[in-house]
Description:
It is globular and about 75 Å long. 37% of the residues lie in helices and 25% in strands. Helix 4 packs across helix 5 (134-142) and helix 5 (134-142) packs antiparallel against helix 6. Residues 197-208, 472-496 and 499-504 have low confidence and may be disordered. The protein has 19 helices and 21 strands. The strands form five sheets. Strands 1, 2, 11, 12, 13, 14, 15 and 21 form an eight-stranded mixed β-sheet that branches.
Amino acid sequence: xxxxxxFVIGAGPAGLTAAxxxxxxxxxxxxxxxxxxxxxxxxxxxxxxxxLFDIGGHRFFSKSKEVVDLWxxxxxxxxxxxxxxxxxxxxxxxxxxxxxxxxxxxxLGYVESALCVLSYLHKQAFxxxxxxxxxxxxxxxxxxxxxSIFFKTYTEKVWGMSCDEISADWAAQRIKGLDxxxxxxxxxxxxxxxxxxxxxxxxxxxxxxESFQYPRKGPGMMWDAAAAHIKARGGKIHMGTxxxxxxxxxxxxxxxxxxxxxxxEWKAFTARHVISSAPIRELVASIRPQLACTAAADRLRYxxxxxxxxxxxxxxxxxxxxxxxxxxxxxxxxxxxxxSWSPEMVPDEKLACLGLEYxxxxxDGLWNSSDxxxxxxxxxxxxxxxxxxxxxxxxxxxxxxxxxxxxYDESYKANVEAIRGELGERFPTLxxxxxxxxxxxNNQDHAxxxxxxxxxxILAGETLYxxxxxxxxxxYHEAGAAGEREALQSLRLVPGRLAARRAG
Length: 504
């Protein structure tokens, strides 16, 4: 039976950040990762015949200097600066994102633009009273026509439910304080000529909107480097190894962790602390004896997606990092251009490599389709959009990503609070970190910060920081009564089904 001070479940950004910092401080640390090949979780870099794929797209920027400094410490010499460009594809036209007023006017046409304004004015005069759905809330703010063009299709593709079933709470949180006139004002400013560079104190101002840092060979470079550092310091990383059981021995103050090795054998580890970035549903199911909150964990849901990478016998087809596909006639939700992330992602300058992303649920029709069927679908839809002919596609592969997004339905908050309450009361040395580990829709930098604060707590021997205060605005607070209240209020609102509609 192998022993370490800290046992980490999952080698994604959160798990590896914790292990990196702990081994740096001389703490004996063991990591298990279910994937047999890749570390990094959703931030890994997948490969196929020399072509590299970023699963989901990861722009490296953060409001937290600590996170940026850690990125540079782990990977000091391999970042490049890349231009940021995204557009929306709708009805055969491309719209800059953020929108540009004159471009949008030309693309929509003067008649459609006028109808959008009339639709907005109608809703201002006759709004839906107390809208409960995402549809109702957005239509009140922008009118029915703009809702249908820029909100409906993409939102339903991502979350797999009708906008009439998605809670208005999500819209109020994600589009808070934005109205049509401010949006038009911003779009107009984006349409006006800008100086080549803005000066302040003699220095050029660069914004995250215009560019971002990126590892030369994709985000997996960061996590491969972190794993190498961990191993060099004596840390252990067991690939292809999945969690089977967790047992707490209160008398000894030790966890016994049962795992299944790549060979299918059962093996035991012991540790004083366990850090988990595994999905809460899977973590709770592994704890023996069974917990009262198991039923709450079973109710947590996840949204999955897959990437169909197509190698196209043409040079780069568009300059964007990705294009959002708002076109309802195709299933694809977003298309990445991997060379726009980094030239080193595509080894042949004469070819383009695109990643068509399809949002789905594990086990549904898309997920269960064969790779050949998915590649055929992607080729057909690429041609339908007009980016390339089916005959131009030379090759392709499929990458599936389970549990990419935690679903925030009407009961998720109560379920998470029930789980937090029982785990916190019974197991103070069990630490939840990361997106799936906390069932919290964190970005990569926020997932890392939850791990950084957890490592500090372990090294200090006491809870100095409440990691649940790490939120999408990168506001990190020390623990305390006020902080705990902020933590509960900061749970990010993501689409949830209306309870009344589901009950009916």
